[in-house]
UniProtKB/TrEMBL annotation, chains A, B:
Keyword Lyase: yes
GO biological process entries: D-serine catabolic process
GO molecular function, one term: D-serine ammonia-lyase activity
Lineage start: Bacteria, Bacillati, Actinomycetota, Actinomycetes, Micrococcales
Keywords: Lyase
Signal peptide location: none
Protein name, per record: D-serine deaminase, pyridoxal phosphate-dependent
Length: 358, 358
């Protein structure tokens, strides 16, 4: 096949496989289970590789992602989200359970438990109680986890355990503190659940930036759920949680202009994603030009400042998105390059769960 | 059909039609042509409405968008981008020309002209010279427009005119200045082209934030290319270039949690888009709660602070994305609500050009 048109998202297969193996080995060495978050890649082929490397199942963010992975034969799934079970979600979760899929969902309130029961899903869909470990998004307070878990058990709902997401690890010098706060919150929540007579079987945490710290800590976690670690991205690079030599997904982009003595690329926010954290140095990085900075990003233009000679008009450069989960969700296919060849993909994978927001 | 699952993007058809009519009337009153930028909606049905309301054709950003609109019967298209005509783009532009579509593309360098000629597209694809009017993205300097245009004509390429994009209008209190600078740049570029013996037929500018100022100015523009004006969004609301009463696209989202005494919605950056300009008050707005602020946005969570009683768990609220072009590009379909009914869509439109980045 001809080389795909730019811009396109390109996987370096050897690097990606090495990332999967490295994280799996680290989890095994620490004695915790892995349940990688598949929202990052949304791709059946990659989910299968993670399970083949020892993952106990996958994490997803929505019922739609669960449907896509079950259709691809990956049916041990935790939906790490406090789903409000309306008529639509009830019907779809029921269908997944009827297919024999092992599905658990997040829950952070007694009202949420009641919805599940009202929908007739008690005994068919398990839950894990979400607690807030300092990110201040969803999740009940750790000391309330016992009350929520007990309400579920009283209503006949299986409670697998407790989980948190240390999203506040996404800031400079915050990774160790977030991992510590997550361990403390999960310890408190597990104690509250034991006191309520519902001891957690699974104590789940983790994110990519906090991963190394969580593995090094004295923590009660029995399971970790990193997502981005499969690819790495510019955020992880700049936070220090991904070595650029391990980054496995880039956007191949063409130099279309030298206007103003800068580089203008045909990759913009509609393929890289518009994410830019306040602490990011720019709108993504250039893998082969670490001194370059993307100083402006439009929907189809990246404007790059870099020292020295500009790459020629028409040449192709590799851009590392700031947040790879958003970039992947913008494309239908991922081009897969193998054996260090970055000129011609070996194959193409469908982003099976792209756009599955509900 | 049942009400669609949340989150989903919802068009208020009456408002959208009023927006199309209002802009068309303003352009007619000023005596300029409209060529709306279809990258905002990427939808055939909406493009047809814009043409029916008097638009002289559509603007698109990529060859892929051009292909999608030509397939939908809209074949008078300007690709407002300095396309680097490689083998892939050459073949696809040639196919569009062979179908009889009237296609012009942007050009900002003599090297770019040479690519077009090398590809055998002289006489088949017209060009417009892009000039930088202060946004400092692509585009040559206005005084260089004559040189680029003359090189094109010498090579047998039809030069339709000149264009600019005043993207620096996207900042508080910048709209009038950006419109003025665009008018000055286009005046200078047109003079340079006349001096080079290539007088521009079309002098094209415009953006949604600068639209009112461009219409009020003494400007040489013969054509304007607003995109966002068809819907409006939170950026335009906060810049003062969209009345919230005219905003025609929202994301219907369900309240899934009251964690921490705040509202947590099931709409995150994978449907709203992660755009957040430094001057934005948050990650989007709530149409029916103008005092609310989205203080945190994850891929599937929006955390909202608002005064007074929180909307109930399970209720649906309408979120205005910061940047609607990105939101639309994340979904496959738009739900179309009519006659003020926001409970059940009248129809559904395909986002035909979604993801067409190349």
């Amino acid at each position: 096949m001809p080389a795909p048109a730019t811009p396109h998202l390109a996987i370096d297969l050897e690097r990606m496989q090495a990332n999967i193996a490295r994280v799996a080995e680290a989890a095994t060495a620490r004695g915790v289970a892995l349940r990688p978050h598949a929202k990052t890649h949304k791709t059946i082929e990659i989910g299968r590789m993670q399970v083949a490397a020892g993952a106990h199942g996958l994490t997803v963010a929505t019922v739609g992602e669960a449907e896509a992975f079950v259709a691809g034969g990956l049916d041990d799934l935790f939906v790490a989200y406090p789903i409000w079970v309306d008529a639509d979600k009830a019907a779809r979760l029921s269908t997944l359970a009827a297919r024999g899929a092992a599905i658990s969902i997040g829950i952070d309130s007694i009202a949420g438990v009641e919805r599940l029961v009202h929908a007739g899903l008690a005994g068919r869909i398990a839950v894990r109680v979400e607690v807030d470990a300092g990110h201040h998004r969803s999740g009940c307070a750790p000391h309330d986890a016992g009350e929520v878990a007990a309400a579920a058990v009283r209503a006949g709902v299986e409670v697998e355990g407790v989980f948190a997401f240390p999203g506040h690890a996404y800031a400079p010098d915050a990774r160790e503190r977030a991992a510590r706060e997550e361990a403390d919150a999960l310890t408190a929540a597990a104690a509250a659940m034991r006191a309520a007579g519902v001891p957690p079987t699974v104590i789940s945490g983790g994110s990519t930036p906090s991963l190394a710290a969580s593995l090094a800590l004295d923590s009660p976690v029995t399971e970790l759920r990193p997502g981005v670690s499969v690819f790495g991205d510019a955020q992880q690079w700049e936070l220090g949680s991904a070595d650029p030599a391990h980054i496995a997904l880039t956007c191949h982009a063409t130099v279309v202009s030298h206007a103003g003595g800068r580089l203008v690329l045909d990759a913009g926010s509609k393929v890289l994603g518009p994410d830019r954290a306040p602490w990011a140095t720019g709108h993504g990085r250039l893998l082969d030009h670490p001194d370059a900075r993307i100083v402006q990003l439009s929907e189809h233009h990246a404007v790059v400042e870099l020292p020295g000679d500009l790459p020629a008009l028409g040449s192709v450069v590799r851009v590392v998105p700031n947040h790879v989960c958003i970039a992947v969700n913008m494309v239908d296919d991922l081009e897969v390059y193998d054996r260090g060849d970055d000129t011609m993909p070996a194959t193409r994978w469908r982003v099976a769960a792209r756009g599955r927001n509900s």
